[in-house]
Amino acid sequence: MATKEFKRAARIILVGAPGVGKGTQAERLMKRFPQLSAVSSGDLLRNAVRNKTPLGQEAQSHMKSGSLVPDDMILRLILGELKAKSWVPPTTSLFDAAPSLPSNAPSASFILDGFPRTSVQAQKLNALIPINLVVSLITPVNIILGRIANRWVHAPSGRVYNTGFNKPNVEGKDDVTGEPLTKREDDGEETWRARLKKFEETSEPLLEHYERKGVLWRVEGKSSDEISPKLFGEFERRFC
Fold this sequence. Notes:
Number of helices: 8
Helix content: 40-55%
Distance between the termini: 16 Å
Order of helices and strands: EHEHHHEHEHEEHEH
Largest sheet: 5 strands, parallel
Radius of gyration: 19 Å
Shape: globular
Number of strands: 7
Strand order of the largest sheet: 2-3-1-4-7
């Protein structure tokens, strides 16, 4: 696959129902556009907890008590990562009255994963760094359910297989280690439908927020292979 270069920074969020293929599209986008990197709020949180940073210890106390990690704590983690990469000015603060001007260099391009999930979180993020493209990935429910039924994972590495279109070389075994594949706990239909309901409740106002900002773009397809070329074309049109 030929790679393409951006002419300006792309600050991206992918939004879609559980199982729609956000991870697949993010990987393909980063291969196609090498200046893109992934910023995962979940990874930042896990690293902070593992490394026992002050923020990580504070977050762990919330997690141990069963409460959600507060939005401002996640934003501080994201801000720390953006500063470390010099993508925002070092003086940028969560308490600035207006967002600092982020770097517009193509190398300051990222896909933000795991945050925001609500319109309130989106407003807080916007005060920190303006997102310039939000992609709403749409795939019919019956297609996603079929995909989930066929999905198997190698838990230690996170490698994902699908008996419909991405089979392991040996049935039930990981290609690299030969270890057994398992099902995700949340891959049952009932669990997925509960997650979908929650996603729909929070995503509607989130998408409306970004539509008002003029940065929302919707793409629909029955498979990741159908969606990817449309995504590539839109990214090239906007950023190359």
